[in-house]
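Design a sequence for this backbone.
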């Protein structure tokens, strides 16, 4: 079983890569997709896809708090090619748009 720290390290290293997903994470960790799914589910209660996306969104929230980058720059920095998609997913996850989040922090 892989530890959450091992999984997190690989995800963080590849956060800006919009093509980085479950298959790439499996290859980097040297385990199969079903095994990774079982490990992530057991450790976090989330699917592997959701866990990777949550990492991206949390990093996006940190970058929004710093107020040093535009929303478009942040979305690219955390692996989203489309700023509008990032905004939609961010709003769904945190209940506030990235633009409004910047204003309230």
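Sequence:
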């Amino acid at each position: 079983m892989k530890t959450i720290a091992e999984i997190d390290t690989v995800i963080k290293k590849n956060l800006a890569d919009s093509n980085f997903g479950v298959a790439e994470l499996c290859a980097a960790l040297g385990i199969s997709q079903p095994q990774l799914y079982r490990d992530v589910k057991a450790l976090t209660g989330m699917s592997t896809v959701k866990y990777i996306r949550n990492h991206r969104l949390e990093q996006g929230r940190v970058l929004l708090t710093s107020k040093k980058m535009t929303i478009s720059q942040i979305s690219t920095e955390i692996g989203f090619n489309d700023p509008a998609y990032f905004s939609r997913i961010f709003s769904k996850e945190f209940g506030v748009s990235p633009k409004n989040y910047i204003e309230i922090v």
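The CA atoms of residues 71 and 83 lie 7 Å apart.
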